[in-house]
Amino acid sequence: MAEQQVILEARNITKDYGGGRVLDGVSLQVHKGEVIVLIGPSGCGKSTFLRCMNGLEQIQSGQILLDGEVITEGKTDWTKVRQKIGMVFQSYELFPHMSVIDNLVLGPVKVQGRDKKEVTKEAEKLLERVGLLDKKDAFPRQLSGGQKQRVAIVRALILKPEILLFDEVTAALDPEMVREVLDVILELAADGYTMLIVTHEMQFAKAVADKIVFIDGGKVVESGIPEKFFTQPETDRARRFLNTFIYAKGGEKA
Amino acid sequence: MQDLGIRVLFLGNNFARLLQGLWITIRISLIAVALSIVFGVLLGILMTVKNPVIKAMTKIYLEFIRIMPQLVLLFLVFFGLTKSYGINLSGETSAIIVFTLWGTAEMGDLVRGALISIPKHQYESGAAIGLTKWQVYRYVIIPQILTRLVPLAINLTTRMIKTTSLVALIGVVEVLKVAQQIIEANRYTVPDSALWIYGTIFFLYFFACWPISLVAKRLEKKWKTT
After folding, report:
1. What's CA A192's distance to the chain center, in Å?
2. Alpha-carbon distance B119 to nearest alpha carbon in chain A (angstroms)
3. ipTM at complex level
4. pLDDT tens, residue by residue, A144-155
5. Helix residue spans in B68-135 (DSSP H)
6. Is A15 part of the contact surface with chain B (CB cutoff 8 Å)?
7. Are the C-beta atoms of A71 and A64 separated by less than 8 Å?
8. Per-residue confidence at A6, pLDDT binned at 50, 70, 90?
């Protein structure tokens, strides 16, 4: 992976929120085609980190670079940047007043000025891929959570971003719907998409990640390949965190 | 039967004159409401801005309009502007200005409420697909608040129609003024005409406002389920 070009990079970024330091000097490089999964306890700053990466949150210091260019200084055209950095949210956030197909077409047509017919065709193809072509005229309220999230993923994909950010996209879903969403993301990984994923699904993280980044207290505590991280974590903190996912009879921790 | 006051209604073109007066009432209200919706949406957006100066200014405007009786505002615009600045506005124009000022304040507050009820993530997911701030409002936020606002706007229209009876006091010959003229003209021949004419007006107002509130109720029901 190391030879691949760096798409998104955070250099020593800090972020204060309500008097506290949420991110404390986080650095990270995402290479083309790489899937990085951020894990860590709730409130550790991993979601905030993701939100900083496409400008939804301002950082206090440090730099963020997209394709080698600093986007956190001077006049950045965030509408341009965000076309290259797709984002999927925990709560789907489809536009409730629009049908599925209109949700998908809005960005490409209004932001990228693409032809509506051509975009509609592409949207239909992508919907078919995630198994939702028959829902194209449905409204978000008629869909299940898993279906909504798959549409939301397509909405990010259709802009042809260079990298996709996933912010706990299965956290609001019923267990049986988690699978259908994660399968879509696994497929995208197999297709070579570059992704930065925040999740609490450890099995999924293990399966999808090229690299695991463990964050705690606003800092990167440990990072490495999943095979190693999940079996032999280097730090005590990571070991304790991973243990919270293991259950043994009688409540005894393994 | 000969003395029944109702015959006043059918003397000359009295009834047609009443309807004409009613039309002026409705016209003032409709124009003012239409303008109020446009300006109200803008004011509502302004009111959600974090800038303290803008916040204070919109707050002052809102309180000022709410505290002032509409009649005082009407006098202020109609007489005040003429006296101090030599601007000569017709009664109807003054009325439209005042009712627009009032409607904008009311709509603005409703829009503000609707805007802050839209989850923050809707703004963010709009931004995340690359929409500009304006496009987020245009395609994502405003369409969502409109469905909530239409019933409220219709409600405001009926309130305006009722309040327009005040414009008679700045010389606009609307339905109430026509009624008074008719009653005055017939006060010796038909002394009890007042009851009949005002009774008619009661029904005119009723039939102007009732369908409007029916529509509002229906829309509210329809959009509640969606």
Report:
1. 15
2. 9
3. 0.86
4. 999 999 999 999
5. 70-75, 81-85, 91-117, 120-128, 133-135
6. no
7. yes
8. very high
Q: Residue A178 is which amino acid? A: V
**Residues whose CB falls within 8 Å of the CB of residue A25, separated by 6 or more in sequence, listed in order:** A12, A13, A14, A62, A219
Q: Which domains does chain B have, with CATH numbers?
A: 5-225 (1.10.3720.10)
What's the rounded Cα separation, in Å, for the pair A178 and A204? 10
- Kindly state the helix (H) or strand (E) to which residue A63 belongs, with its residue range: strand A61-66
Token pair for residue A9?
A: 């990079």
CB contact under 8 A, A141 and B132: no
Token pair 């239909």: residue: A124
CB within 8 Å of chain B, chain A residues 122-151: 139, 141
Question: For the segment A203-251, what is each residue's pLDDT rounded down to a tens digit?
Answer: 899 999 999 999 998 999 999 999 999 999 999 999 999 988 877 676 5
DSSP H helical ranges for A34-112: 46-53, 78-84, 100-106
Contacts of A135 (CB under 8 A, 6+ apart): A100, A127, A142, A143, A147, A151
- On the question of pLDDT at B2 being above 60, the answer is no
Q: Among A91-105, B48-62, B129-143, B180-194, whose mean pLDDT is lowest?
A: B180-194
- Fill in the amino acid letter for A62: G
Residue A74's region, left for phi above 0, alpha for psi from -120 to 50, else beta, is left
Contact residues for B113 (Cβ-Cβ < 8 A; gap 6+) = none
List, in order of start, the domains of chain A with CATH numbers: 6-251 (3.40.50.300)
